[in-house]
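ok here's SDR family oxidoreductase, seq below lol
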Amino acid sequence: MLEGKVVAITGAGRGIGRDIALLCAKEGAAVVVNDLGGSADGEGSDAGPAEETVNDIRSAGGKAVVNGASVADPAGAASIVEDAVRNFGRIDAVVNNAGILRDRIWHKMSHEDWQAVIDVHLHGAFNVSKAATPYFRDQGAGSFIHFTSTSGLIGNFGQANYSAAKLGIVGLSQSIALDMARAGVRSNCIAPFAWSRMVATIPASNEVEALRLERLKTMSTDKIAPLVAFLASDASAEVTNQIFSVRKNEIFLFSKPRPIRSMHRAEGWTVESIASDLLPAFRPSFSGLDRSGDIFGWDPI
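and the structure came out like this:
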């Protein structure tokens, strides 16, 4: 499905990114395996995981190169795309998978924790996508595949930084899809459910959260890769501006925010009439304090 394609994957040394890289290579793509090799909270660096992924791809007869740059650095992000073009002559798909977690309840979240997560997830997706855009425009084709999360789409506890970044990525993807459609470029999002090194850092403060984490342990990272490879392929040429989710053997398509209720008053609204008339009318349609685990509460098969 990806014969002759060149795919750049960020955070591809471990977990979801590694499985994506292995499958894309198996499907015929040449792969740029980007991974800074930092800890789950973004500290340090280690080239080992990316090198191991590349070695495994080459041992299986595939083509791959290592890139150890930080996606949070615009120059580093540009080097990922440059490595693809220099080594393989082109770039056909970008997978913005790199991420970190610094979970804190809102009133304890520092500016540093906020900035670090935004830099890697949202700024990282922007930086790598921006670097690939001129090549996509020139060749009249290309696929951006961004990783969002149900923490942003639905909500989660103690993840204001991560949730904001992940919902921001949805807005970024949508804007790219709209702006680049005339150039034949598409942009989509995936919200993955899978047990990974990063997810393992999430604390469980009660029995419900502990059960949710146990459920996540049954969801292997390799389940995400087929949808990514499909979106990188020509078979997905008609698919853009969508939000998918993968949960073990289930694939979901998410809706986007659209108006659900309206109420009109010819004379306009006052503070009092909003309280007396609009509130009772709108109240049944208000969103609750749902978290991702409340919406996806059943066991995956």
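fwiw The beta strands are 6-9, 30-34, 63-67, 93-96, 142-147, 185-193, 243-247, 250-253. kinda neat tbh
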